[in-house]
Please model this.
Amino acid sequence: MQLEIVSDSEGQSGDVRDVLAIRLLQQKWEIGISAKNNHRAVKHCRLSQKIDFGEKWIGIPCSRDYFDEIEPIFDFLTNLKQKDKNTKWTSIPNMHDKIYVPLLNAFRKELLRLDKEHPLQIPQKLVEYLIGNKDFYKVMKGRNTVQVQAYNLHGTLNQPFKDINPKAKIQKLKLPTRLIEVVYEGDSKTTLIVSLNEGWQISFRIHSASSRVEPSLKFDINLISAPYTLFNNHIFIGDN
Model:
């Protein structure tokens, strides 16, 4: 068996696996594992004036209208940094209303536009980029538990070998085909909730990655819900 560490660059293209166990000679299979320590985020993506999230995430470029809408916001941040590279985000009056909300509005509008112009394509491509375009087991270590989930999006996990069948059945997850809505989470000015069919729901929380102002912001992206067929197992461990 061959063990490999997956490079960070693979994650940029949607392969979220950290470790691969590969057996090529007889069985020709591989098992991918995504390992998390005390956090559940599925992805950390940036927004900036130069980043085309449509092209990068789903292979369909964002519109000129989107870039025209976000340009004044990032120009403002660029000017602040040029005047004083130590300027703090907290020094911007009404930062959430002035920066976060307009950016989230532009992102929401563009995501809905992409979905309208390319029906049936966006939901699946979005989930594959954010959750993973290669099937994998997700292992999350908490304080007293280890949680294991199986993201069998393409049916490559839990395969039989010759006359040996797997002891457990891991169902293939259904990818979404419809974008239901993109709304703010309650009264939040930082978080959008993207709801898709087949039980998928994803949160996008925008935040500054540094205490100092810079012309880019970061998304902390979390999976709120998945299809009920998602394999999920908790292993409880002691303090010692």
Remarks:
- The chain has one domain: 2-236.
